[in-house]
Amino acid sequence: MSPDKRVWINGEVVGRDEARIDIEDRGFQFADGIYEVVRIYHGRPFALAAHLQRLGRSAEGIGLALRPDVTVLAREIEAFITRHAPADSMLYLQATRGPAPRNHQFPAQPAPTLLFYAKPLPPPGEPAGSTVRLLSVKDERWSRCWIKSMALLANVLAKNQALAAGADEAVFVDGPLVHEGSASNILAVREGRLIAPPAGPRVLGGITRGALVELCPRLGIEVAERPLTEQEALAAEELLITSTTREVAPVVAWDGRPVGGGVCGPVTRRLAQVLRERIEHECREAR
Amino acid sequence: MSPDKRVWINGEVVGRDEARIDIEDRGFQFADGIYEVVRIYHGRPFALAAHLQRLGRSAEGIGLALRPDVTVLAREIEAFITRHAPADSMLYLQATRGPAPRNHQFPAQPAPTLLFYAKPLPPPGEPAGSTVRLLSVKDERWSRCWIKSMALLANVLAKNQALAAGADEAVFVDGPLVHEGSASNILAVREGRLIAPPAGPRVLGGITRGALVELCPRLGIEVAERPLTEQEALAAEELLITSTTREVAPVVAWDGRPVGGGVCGPVTRRLAQVLRERIEHECREAR
User: Fold this and answer.
1) Residue-wise pLDDT tens digits, A6-58
2) What is the 3-state secondary structure (H, E, C) of A137-205?
3) What mean pLDDT is reported for chain B?
4) Is A83 in the B-facing interface, judged by CB distances under 8 Å?
5) Min CA distance, B209 vs chain A (Å)?
6) H-type alpha helices, chain B
7) CA distance A48 to chain B (A)
8) Interchain proximity B104–A183, CB inside 8 Å
9) CB-based contact (8 Å) between A5 and chain B?
10) Torsion sign (Cα): B158, B164, B168, B174
């Protein structure tokens, strides 16, 4: 581990190996916390404001008072990235209700744990350059998936079920509906229009998903933010996933059968390119 | 904190303040782990074998290989309790998939984190001596509640919603069915018979619940292990919750209205007494 690795924890910047938490941290004993993953390109965070806005919504969703607040936090993150983040990396941020004698009841005077650190990533490849095979898994998660909490055990189990089946990602399905991937949103192209399931009980409001929805009108692509059925997904002209670290990736298989013609379609490619342009604009040119 | 406080962590017994975990422990970042709470009376654990058996089922449920296995673990726990546990206390045990660079994918070579420690509790009061007021909450949890995982955020939020409403415990209800409390099982007495919802997607197989079900035939109380409807619960002669730390407690209110006549009924009292006798037999007389 390089000595350059640092962790910001409760206002202090410490070496990676010193960043340890108490066994009674509520994040460890109750998954009582939230998190964000922010992609860093050219040493600059992409869509940091949107990530912190979502962090604020998640905090509200679990009744957690963030300290410092997101405005101060944004400055701390910016300063940390400038000093400690590799040019291509991700920032992982986590906030928990902190250490307290174990009890479901909220502590009377919570001392939240807030930490973030950067991890190197390979430079991004060609936009939409890697394809994705999905395994559909029954959605057995809780009904507040719009909160980005660390209660991710169901996501972890689904992801590993997909990998064990030779797929790349699990997609959560419930009855007729397709919700999202284990660590991604899913979108479909039907008759040239983008169908984007909105944030809700079983769908997280993805930042990359949100960026695409915002970009579409400029590209003359109509967007329908509404639930997606499995039948629609299977018959879609194009199917794609979005995530902070994967950006836009075409789905080429669903439970071992080709979807979207088994290749990356033109709308997906265009969206991936335009997203990358926006990333370059925000992270390179704004330097 | 008394210097006597010790934590067993990965085979070592360390001081409480030295027991710290890595920020990339999968228990902290993914709730990728399981736990048990064992009650200690007279310096002896109650129903330790049943707790460890359930730990084994939970581990299997998330594909976690426990190290050491439950046989060795039982010996370690017994030795630890003898040396370090207060006479009246609880043992908290947690096993996670351990530290690894953050990734939903299971680590190729997991190094699980296993820890346990004892915490003092007040000596138990009169059997069934404290009453419980429930607040009903829609069950929005995941569908593998038979796994005792630390993905407890929904339980934590429900419990605090109940406390905020002036109740003592939340009870999860879905459609016509009553599942369980946020940290307890719920049982009803109808026409002298005990109705005990069995372990399943939304019910944990409680150890205290299991002990009661086992005791009933000897007491001439018929048991029906089957789902319980809200209608039945509200009209029950008696309603009770069970948990390791609360043992048996009569439910006297449901959403602010009296249930079970608003007092502890005779079957509940009898069950609480007989459970306590069994505890005394196992923990005191077997010394």
Assistant:
1) 999 999 999 999 999 999 999 999 999 999 999 999 999 999 999 999 999 99
2) EECCCCCCCCCCECCCHHHHHHHHHHHHCCCCEEEEEECCEEEEECCCEEEEEECCEEECCCCECCECC
3) 96
4) no
5) 20
6) 26-29, 48-61, 70-84, 153-164, 207-219, 230-235, 266-280
7) 20
8) yes
9) no
10) negative
Measured between CA atoms, the residue of chain A closest to residue B35 is: A29
With beta carbons less than 8 A apart as the criterion, state whether B141 and A142 touch.
yes
CA distance A269 to A194: 13
Q: Do B23 and A28 touch (CB under 8 A)?
A: no
Identify which of B7, B30, B201 has the shortest CB distance to residue A23: B7
Report the distance separating Cα A115 and Cα A85, nearest Å: 14
Residues of B in contact with A150 (CB under 8 A): 28-31
In whole angstroms, give the CA distance from residue B224 to residue B203.
15
Would you call B117 and A152 a contact, using CB atoms and an 8 Å cutoff?
Answer: no
Catalytic site includes residue A5: no
Which DSSP state fits A101? Answer: S
* Cβ–Cβ below 8 Å for A156 and B115: no
Helix (H) and strand (E) counts in chain B: 7, 17
Query: Which segments of B97-246 does DSSP mark as H helices, in order?
Result: 153-164, 207-219, 230-235
Ordered DSSP codes for B214-229 = HHHHHHT--EE-S-EE
Q: What is the pLDDT of residues B255-267, one digit of tens each?
A: 999 999 899 999 9
- Helix, strand, coil shares of chain B, percent, nearest 5, are 30, 30, 35
With beta carbons less than 8 A apart as the criterion, state whether A143 and B140 touch: yes
Distance CA B275, CA B120 (A): 21
Cβ neighbours around B186 below 10 Å, total: 27
Q: What is the pLDDT of residue A202?
A: 98
**pLDDT tens digit sequence for B174-208:** 999 999 999 999 999 999 999 999 999 999 999 99
DSSP class of residue B212?
H
CA distances to B168, B231, B232, B254 from B173, rounded to whole Å, are 16, 11, 13, 12
